[in-house]
Amino acid sequence: MANRNEKYSRTRVKICGITSVEAAQHVCASGADSIGLVFYEKSPRNVSIETATEIYASLPPFVTCVGLFLDPDIEFVETVLANVGLDLLQFHGSETPDFCQSFPRPYIKAIGMESVETEDDFKKLADQYTTAKGFLVDSHATGKAGGTGKTFDWSHVPQNYAKPIILAGGLNPNNVADAMQACNVYGIDLSSGVESQPGIKDKQKITQLMKEVQRVHCKN
Ligand SMILES: O=C(O)c1ccccc1NCC(=O)[C@H](O)[C@H](O)COP(=O)(O)O
Fold first, then answer.
1. What is the pLDDT of residues 203-220, one digit of tens each?
2. How confident is the model at residue 119 (pLDDT cuts 50, 70, 90)?
3. For a FRET experiment, which of 4, 121, 133, 158 has its CA 20 to 30 Å from that of 48?
């Protein structure tokens, strides 16, 4: 078994692609640490600034609100930030380090695992995105940059990396325990694996997911 994380006392959980206050409330009640709001028009999980503002206002303290963007215009990010109290930005496209760090919020950078094959590739990333708070490693599929529901080979996730890693891509209540045991990660991020249909979160799946996460925490 287990290359279980010794560095972090528990694995943080982010549920991405929240589109309603009701879903946000359930995610918070289930014990997740963070919600993600998708600001990308082509996504079935895209939220308007108005909806995002309502969701943000409904969050209790200590739950972080992450804004996800994919190659956005600077002006768009600035408009979102002026209206929604995001705690953290997540850049999911080919944004440069200079772009990512040009906003008055911390950020994480999403990386498609097909673009990082070796430890050296990961080292280069940390050298480039020095100000990133961490890297979200995800599966990319043809025509889709995220929310794919596809896993990748978890053995390619580096251990003892310079920055916190958030594991994403095809996680669901049935495989999350294996993923947590396989990777030494700071956090996990899920979207389609806890949905009943694209953009609609499923309460039962979220509850089941958090039970699994607790089970792994208690076991270790
Ligand atoms: O969720 C989307 O629709 C999306 C669209 C474009 C870029 C990124 C997107 N989501 C990114 C996420 O943070 C997802 O949670 C992550 O890719 C994992 O998704 P899944 O495999 O569905 O759990």
1. 999 999 999 999 999 887
2. confident
3. 133
Q: Give the count of domains, the chain.
A: 1
| Closest ligand 1 atom number to CA of residue 16 | 15
Determine the atom of ligand 1 nearest the C-alpha atom of 191. 23
* 188 inside domain: yes
> Which residue owns the Cα nearest ligand 1 atom 9?
146
3 state SS of 30: helix
- Model's pTM, two decimal places? 0.94
DSSP run (H or E) holding 122 = helix 119-128
Tell me whether residue 39 is in a domain: yes
Residue 138 parent element (H or E) = strand 135-138
Cα(19) to centroid of ligand 1, in Å?
13
**Which residues span the domain enclosing 22?**
12-219
Predicted confidence at residue 59, as pLDDT, reads: 98
Q: Does the residue 2 lie in any domain?
A: no
Task: Please tell me the distance between residue 198's alpha carbon and the centre of ligand 1 in angstroms.
Answer: 10
Cβ pair 134, 108 in contact under 8 A? yes
Q: Looking at the domain assignment, is residue 4 inside a domain?
A: no
In short, whether 173's Cβ falls inside 6 Å of ligand 1 is: no
Place of tokens 């009943």: 196
Catalogue the active-site residues. 16, 138
Average pLDDT over every residue of 118-124:
87
d(CA 21, CA 73): 27
- For the CA of 170, the closest atom of ligand 1 is 21
